[in-house]
Amino acid sequence: MTYCVGLKLNAGLVLLSDTRTNAGLDNIACYRKMFFFENPGERVIVIMTAGSLSVTQTTLARLEEAVEDEMADETTSILLAPTMLQVASIIGDSLSRTRREISEMSRDLSQRQASASMIVAGQREGGDMRMFLIYPEGNFIEATEDTPFLQIGEHKYGKPILDRVITPATSLADGQKAVLLSMDSTLRSNLSVGMPLDMAVIEKNACTVSARRRILEGDEEFSRMSHAWSAALRNSFVEIAI
Amino acid sequence: MTYCVGLKLNAGLVLLSDTRTNAGLDNIACYRKMFFFENPGERVIVIMTAGSLSVTQTTLARLEEAVEDEMADETTSILLAPTMLQVASIIGDSLSRTRREISEMSRDLSQRQASASMIVAGQREGGDMRMFLIYPEGNFIEATEDTPFLQIGEHKYGKPILDRVITPATSLADGQKAVLLSMDSTLRSNLSVGMPLDMAVIEKNACTVSARRRILEGDEEFSRMSHAWSAALRNSFVEIAI
């Protein structure tokens, strides 16, 4: 499985993904699940993926091919599309088509349908920051004031902390802390989500990736935070009267 | 959905279930999901249920019928079975048979199979405390030193807190606090789990229910604990350095 989470805060976007891919317990590999499409200053788009690797890789490859195609226009290239909504729409169409094709190919052998979902976040110069969750069918929902975070993959373990601390007014620093703690809970409770992690921060109106960080297994800062959080939870637990 | 959790601690068993049942969002009802079979001092058995209400109700009705049947013997009545293992086996067989029958009945109308799972916990005089998770197929797993808690239903939201604080040495008081906080996280993050709650404590070797409590919506103690936990989480969050 996978865990990816995105926050749309007033101050900017915070995105975090793990990198574990598995086809059964004995076939575990590390694949990046966060992808950047950028024309710095003009637009920045980040895509995070969950689900069947063949679907997500093919979809990404097609999006990249369309971006590099000299004949590309605003209906095919996400670097030319005039709005983030149309970016989400191009990605949704590509995901849906790829998923259908691959399901069709594997229909003879497997009842299980190949499936995948994505989080798409970004901003175009002059437009608003936007963040979408794209479903396997290609349709999508958008993060709003009321729901400033979106998750894909193994989202349940890490939801309680986000429900409690994230509002649109949360700072970018607190946002990073929250997604890392949300990931920490998920890593502890579910083996199919694994290090290293990819984190990206996009400040409002920067239209470029402001900070990007890969957090490796044994990362000191992350370990310290994870231990401090465990200790804090245990202390809070002890202090609460029943 | 449902959330039920059971702890098998050195000091005894702690069990908690919600009561929400739904068939779609507009058909929500309250049904007890915790059932007691007791011959105080000789044996105590608690069953918690998750899944299709028609399957769990019919299974429970059959177990009760077998207990009351004058012809019942140790292979049919869970109050006569010589060990907790055989209690689990009788319940597993009954669940599996009921599930198959109901799936068969509904096959014409629905692709979705009726399904249900159960947690069975208890002790017989002279035997050990034991706790089992019974799968829809009738097979089961048991709580052990390494895994002193079992969950059914919407288990993911409430797992991180249990992973962090529960060991076999946890006291009964701390166990109750932990399952209530685990339930609190689930209630906050998932609408299909709802109050009131049923909690039971069975002290080791008592072979009877030591304490039983129904926690209603607006219960002062539970609300206070829930608020204190939220405040403690938020404070811990603020204090942790990234």
UniProtKB/TrEMBL annotation, chains A, B:
UniProt superkingdom: Bacteria
Signal peptide: none
Keywords of the record: Plasmid
Matches recorded under InterPro entries: Ntn_hydrolases_N, Proteasome_sua/b, UCP009120_prtse
Gene3D superfamilies, alphabetized: Glutamine Phosphoribosylpyrophosphate, subunit 1, domain 1
Descriptive protein name: Peptidase
Origin species: Paracoccus albicereus
